[in-house]
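B., you asked whether I could sanity-check this one before it goes into the benchmark set. Here's the sequence:
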Amino acid sequence: MAKKATKVEKAMSKSEIVTEISNRTELSRKDVGRVFDELGSIIELHVSKKSVGMFTLPGLLKIKIVQRPARPARKGVPNPFKPGEWVGENMYYGGPAWGLTGVNAIEWFISEKQWYHHDDNTCSAPQDQACGHFTQVVWKSSQYVGCGEAIANGLKYYVCNYYPAGNNGQRPY
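And here's what the prediction gave me:
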């Protein structure tokens, strides 16, 4: 019989969860580990590309793949290190089953190069696309770049900030 849930101060690691389940049941750590491995395989089958894109353990958890393109590059992001100055920012995000990496984010930013025309500093991107991510990546006067990864609301986010900010109407290079 399951024990009553108590307050958890810190998220448990996989190893700690396996130990806790083993201690609460008559299953060995090895058996619990096998169940986790099989559950992981079943989840992957459900959420992989060309699959249903959702996995549910009724009453326990629900995983749903959400595909959203990166939002447009932003201007006017305050610089936390130099108040009153701004940084350029690019963001890329998607669901966990996409297997996203920072490399994917940078590749996506750079993929906008196909629509950028340096000769007249214009962009011919389709309506739902842009060139600002690409031009910020290659901006000639940006001296500092910082990128990070975060997971929130079931999505993985990659954000890069550039200082000084680009995309100010001039040519990027």
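One thing to flag: The radius of gyration is 22 Å. Otherwise nothing jumped out at me.
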